[in-house]
Structure formats: structure tokens, C-alpha cells
Write a structure and sequence with these properties.
Helices cover 24% and strands 41% of the residues. The chain is of the alpha+beta class. 21% of the residues are buried. Keywords: Signal.
Length: 138
Amino acid sequence: MKNPITTLNAALLCAALVSATAVQAQQPALQKAGDVQYVCGGIGIDESTAMRAAMKDYPLSLLFATKTGDYLAKIQVVIESEKGTEVAQFQAQGPVCLLRLDSGRYTVKASADGGKAVSQSVEVAPAGTPGKTLDYRF
């Protein structure tokens, strides 16, 4: 006869692994623009949940929405260093973007359809410290 505690522990471990794999599978693939690694997504409840859960693992998060709160995608993003040098440029394919970039001060410019552009400055902290979130409303 098997030990019920061992069987329960094995079942819980399997469930945790399946759950972690399911959440990870819902997050889009990591991409690269310049020296910045990023992932954008958040379309659909599963992907949105996965992206929001992963925010803690990235030093900078970007959120895109209308002023009424509807999420936006296909946003042009340009990231510049404190000296004004372009560090990265990409199109956000979802309302949530998670970025891995070096610590420092940046200006993040986001442009929506119709030419509306919003710029925000941010101080990105070193790895291991809480990340920042920039909220863009168009």
C-alpha cells in the first residue's frame, strides 16, 4: 500500500507544474529591439492574466488604453536614454508590454493611431528591485 501523504504530495507537485506551464504558455514570446528585451500581449483573459502575473519579473511595464479604459494594441513605442539616444523602437502588439532594460533614466514615447503621442520619463531601478509601470491613456 502506498503512503497517502507521498501520493498527495506527488499530485500537488504535478498540478503545480501543469498550472505553471499553462500560465507560461499564455505569455507571448520574448522579443528584442536594440538592447531591450520585451514581450507585449494581454489580449484575452488567459494572456492578460499571464502578463500581469509576470510584471513583477520585469523592471518596466507599459499599459496602453483609451481614456475610457478600453485596451489598445498596435502602439508605436520609442525608448530613449537620458542623453536622447534611441535605445529601442517597436510596435506593441498588445495592451501590456514588459521590458527588460538596464537601470537608468529613460523617456518612453508611445504613439497611437491618429498621431496621438504621449511621452513619459522613468527611472528604471537595478534588477531585483520593484519594477515601474507607465500607464498611457489616449
